[in-house]
Amino acid sequence: MVYQLFTPLLRSQKALDHFRKKRLFTYTRPALYEALLNNGHYIFTQQKAGTNYLCNVLAFYNSRLIGTPCNDFDRISEFGVVRGVQKSATRLRHALDFAQTGHPVYFQSHDFIDVPTKHAIVVSRSVLDYAVSSYHFHYVNFSKRRRQKTVDDALGPIVENYIRRHKGQRQAVRNAARATTVRYEALKQDPHTAFSRVITDIHGRCDTAALSAALEDASVKRVTTGEFERTNNEMVKRAGVSLIRSGTIGEGQEFFSPEQRNFVFDALASQDIDPENPFNDGWNQ
Q: N or C end: fewer C-beta atoms under 10 angstroms in the chain?
C-alpha cells in the first residue's frame, strides 16, 4: 500500500526538513502524486468555490466515522483531508496515518495534477460570482494590490485563472476512473443534499446524523468566529476586518458593468466554456 511505503519516509525528520527547505514534491512529484491519488480522492477546486467548507465538512464527517468527533479547523489533516497537497509534508503524514483506519483520505489542490486518479471531486462556481470573490480576496484585501489594480485591470488575470483551472478540471475528470462534479451554488443553497451526494459517491451511503453535525461544525459563523479568535493577522486584530467574505449567489450580475460581463462571457466562449453551466461542455469526451 502507498501508505506503508510513504509514511515511514514522511515520519523521518530528515525527510521533513528536506521537504520544508526544498519542497520534497519538486523531486518526486509524478510518482508520489500518482501513488497518493490512486489510493485517495483528488479534490480539485476552483479558487473561491467553497474549498475550506468542503474540506472541513469531509474531515469532520470522517472524525465521526471513527468515533472521535472533532471540529478543530487546524486538525483536518489528522482526519484524512490535506488542503494544498503540494505544501506540507506534515499534513500529508497525518493523512497517511489516518488512512490506516480504512476510511477515505482526500488530497486537495487548486492546481491540476496530471496523473491517473481513482476518484476526482471537482468543484466549480459561476464565473461572475467567482470573479467578485477573487477580486475582493486577492486585490481588495491586500492594500498593495488595491492601489495597483482597478476592477478592469484585475478582471483579465482573474478570468485567465478561472479558464486555466477549468481546463485542468476537464482533464482531471478524463484522468479519473470516476468523478464527482460539484457546484459551489449547491453547497451554499442545499448543503445537506449536496454533501450527501458527495459522501454517498465515496462511501456508498451517508450517515445523516454525522453529516448534520459536520455541517454545523463547519458553518460560516464558526469559521468567522474562529478566525477572529486565532488569527495573527494585523488587519483583523487592529481593525476587526475579516478576510472571510461570504459572497452571495448572483452578485456578479450587479457588481460588473454590462461591458465587463460581456468581456467575461466572450473569454469563456472562446474556450468553449458555457458560463451558465460549466459542467455541461463535454467534460467526459
A: C
| pTM attached to this predicted model | 0.82
Q: Which amino acid is at 74?
A: D
Confidence of residue 171 (pLDDT cuts 50, 70, 90): very high
DSSP state of 231: -
Q: Quick check: 98 and 80 in contact, CB under 8 A?
A: yes
Place of cell 463547519: 218
Second-level CATH architecture of 2-269: 3-Layer(aba) Sandwich (3.40)
| Segment 34-67, tens digit of pLDDT | 667 667 899 999 989 989 899 999 999 999 999 9
SS3 104: coil
What residue spans define the domains of the chain? 2-269
pLDDT, mean of residues 259-263? 94
Residues 206-229 as b or e (16 or more Cβ within 10 Å = b) = beeebbebbbebbeeeebeeeeee
